[in-house]
Amino acid sequence: MFNIKFKITPAKILSKEIENKIVEIILDLIKKIKEQKKEIECKHSKEENSVVVEVKSKKDYLATEFIVKTDKQLREILGKELKTGIKEIEIINYEIETELEEAPKKNFSIPFVKKIDFNKKLLKLQYDSITFNQIKEQYLEKSIKLIKDRIKTMNYEGKDEFKEYVWEGKQRKMNYAGDPATDLEEMNWIKRTDAKGQFILGREFTLLINIFKKLLVEKVYSPSGFYEMTFPKFEYWDITKKSGHAKNMYPNVYFVSVPKKSSTEEWQEVMDLYAITGEIPDEKIKEKSSCVGIMSYAQCPPFWPYLKNKIIDEKTLPLLVYDWSGPTYRNESGGVHGLDRVEEFHRIETLFVGTKPQVIETWKKLKESFIKFYDEVLDLEMKVARVTPWWMAHIGIKNDEGTAEVGTFDFDFYLPYRGDRDKEWLEVQNVSSNGEKYPLAWNVKEKNQEILWSGCAGASMERIVVAFLSQKGLDSKNWPKEVREKFEKEMKNIKALKFY
Does residue 55 contact residue 69 with C-beta atoms inside 8 Å? Predict the structure, then answer.
């Protein structure tokens, strides 16, 4: 049931002629709707300089459809026949009663709704301050979709996460049982800063990262035809909307704010307060700033404006690129730990765009290339699992396994310092086929106007190093030959720092 009550106020004084014409238009619209075998009821009355209308329909947002058509007809006919217009259509009340697919575990509220009641699967909503423009912008439809999504997410909580191992490497002998983060800090390879989950990576640690990068290019990227690009590390709001992260990223991101005005005069108070107190006046800064987006959260979304609204010749595809030009930022609300759970980490983003067959083929080949790299080149103990596609996991759906064409593979590495081999594994790498998700959002097509497909792979350099050192230890003599020789050659030129 959809029940809307609204007030129509013409631009001129409500004469009998204008009132009759408004009523005539309303009744004509009701008649046409009923001729379509749709159930709708309407009554009207006069109130001061307005006509008050109440419409009831049993389903399908007919009440919403009716008010939008009423506005259009009134503006066209009143202007043409009576030389007047509509001053305002004011929503007095809107009530919705509809059946849901599933009942929520607990009650909750959403914006714009005065009252929300759940009776098992029966949902009742009441609005009293929603505007006509908000109705035109489909706030009601979006509200009900939001409620359904919230219920789905809520009801998925606590269910087992889908995870099916599809490949498992051999067990390795472990030479080390320490926590690399603790020992590396004592060795001055890294230094924890005063910021939450942030490290300065020293020369030795950075050397090891660069060796892994060179090996990745040599063993994975170059043989497959991938080339390096540089993606922005700032995502303005439009990117988060198109990528889908704007739905629920807020607890987990770093926000970016810029001055509303850049003049010294505007910021003099802030500077003076700091000069006197020696403290950053953050509340004053918030008043004078505007939040414009976030620091890179998933890393691949800032790439997509590069192809926005492009039509690409299929002969030039697939586009195969990778980016490791800067850090990614995540507010780890569940806490940080060592180097494996930090807030600023150096991500390897791998991205591929092409036709559906090209993307599926690249996805599968890339998975095999990464398996070979970690298993044979770095000689690491790991497992590969089919998991819920990452973009679904981001919205709280944990037990969807994807399909043979769209989905995510996680690469898990054993961390001996944590103990139990049955449980203590760290996800270091993933590879996904994302289907049309991103090309559709940014309108990227091939020359026959077909929407393209895309996929991506992500890994954290910090996590690769943690997995490697956890299993191989800190003595390079125990490392695989290719890593050891490159590292020891370069280390001869690095003088160790001494502290007093």
Answer: no
User: For this structure, is 300 an active site residue?
Assistant: yes
CA distances, 409 to each of 190, 353, 366 (Å): 30, 18, 11
HSE toward the beta carbon, residue 236, CA cutoff 13 A: 5
Question: Which candidate in 97, 314, 424, 427 is catalytic?
Answer: 427
* Residue 330 annotated in active site: yes
Task: Mark whether 349 is an active-site residue.
Answer: yes
Nearest to 174, CA basis, from 11, 382, 402, 417: 417
CATH fold of the domain at 163-254+297-491: BirA Bifunctional Protein; domain 2 (3.30.930)
Omega of the bond leading into 318 within 30 degrees of 0 (cis): yes
Determine whether 430 is an active site residue.
yes
19 is catalytic: no
Residue span(s) of the chain under CATH 3.30.930.10 come to 163-254+297-491
Within the chain, all domains assigned CATH 3.30.70.1920 are found at 2-156
| Alpha carbon distance 463, 472 (integer Å) | 14
Kindly name the residue from 65, 97, 314, 332 that is annotated as catalytic.
Answer: 332
Q: Let me know if 456 is a catalytic residue.
A: yes
Q: Is 410 a known active-site residue?
A: yes
Per-residue pLDDT of the chain in tens (500 residues, 90 and over written 9): 888 899 999 898 989 999 999 999 999 988 888 888 888 888 889 988 999 999 888 776 778 888 888 899 898 899 888 988 889 999 998 999 988 889 988 889 999 888 999 998 999 999 878 898 998 888 988 898 899 988 888 877 656 678 899 999 999 999 898 999 999 999 999 999 999 999 999 999 999 999 999 999 999 999 999 999 999 999 999 999 999 999 889 999 999 999 999 999 999 999 999 999 999 999 999 999 999 999 998 889 999 999 999 999 999 999 999 999 999 999 987 788 899 999 999 999 999 999 999 999 999 999 999 999 999 999 999 999 999 876 665 555 555 667 889 999 999 999 999 888 888 899 999 999 999 999 999 999 999 899 999 999 999 999 999 999 999 999 999 999 999 999 999 999 998 888 88
Q: What would the CATH number be for the domain defined by 2-156?
A: 3.30.70.1920
Residue 347 is a catalytic residue: no
Catalytic residue among 179, 323, 343, 349: 349
